[in-house]
Amino acid sequence: MSHVSNLFRMIVDVLRARLEIFFLQRKINSLKLLHYDLLEESNRALQLALDTKGLEIRDMRSQLVHRDMRIEQLKTEYATLREQQSKAENRGVETERLTWFKKLQAVATQLPTVKAALEAGAPLSAHDMLGLISPMEEALHDQGFEPIGQAGGFTIFDPTRHHAVGRGARNLSASDVVRIRYVGYLFQGKVMSKAEVTRAESEDVVHALN
């Protein structure tokens, strides 16, 4: 009787152990399945992120290609504009030089003759000299140059426009009367060259005023 009881108890223990093993395996399988689902979900999320990054990289590469093409296009356009501007500037300079030559053509053609005549000792009249000077004065005036004073004329000394020379030049003040020896020139109100002046003698001033 005790032998049968022991056998029955052993059978119950075995069955209990197998049940525990069964439930433990189910729990393990459940945990495996849960972790597999999490892993699969993480894998899908990672793949989606990689795909998105891949699209962004391809888009960036496409933008870089278009940017490089645009840069090359702008370089070509800039080079073309520079060439056109250079040609326009050259034409402008050429036109300006031709305009100056036309205005000074009389001077340019007559000066060599005047020089040869002077070297040969031929007399020149005041009319001949005025014919040379007038076109040059007109050309300077057309280009916006204004003379400072009148050659031989008298004026009040202005150190910003006059360059004093000769006796007493260093002692001249802004209230002194001077005589213009060589005219200077202004361009758009800016002094390009000062007029050369000398101290006026008292009798010269009186004579000029009378």
What does this structure look like?
- With 210 residues, the protein is an alpha+beta fold.
- It has a domain at 145-210.
- 68% of the residues lie in helices and 14% in strands.
- It has three helices and seven strands; from the N terminus they run H-H-E-E-E-E-E-E-E-H.
- The strands form two sheets. A four-stranded mixed β-sheet has the order 2-4-7-3, with no helix packed on it. Strands 1-5-6 form a three-stranded antiparallel β-sheet.
- A hairpin with a 2-residue loop joins strand 5 (184-187) and strand 6.
- It starts with a helix and ends with a helix.
- The mean pLDDT is 80.
Quick one: overall form? rod-shaped
* Helix/strand order, N-terminal first: HHEEEEEEEH
- Please summarize the sheet with the most strands: 4 strands, mixed
Note poorly predicted spans. Answer: none
Mean pLDDT rating: 80
- Percent range for β-strand residues: 5-15%
Give the oligomeric state.
single chain
Give a brief rundown of this model.
The protein is α+β, with helices and mostly antiparallel strands and 210 residues long. It has 3 helices and 7 strands.
Notable traits:
single chain; 210 residues; alpha+beta; 4-stranded mixed β-sheet; 3-stranded antiparallel β-sheet; 3 helices
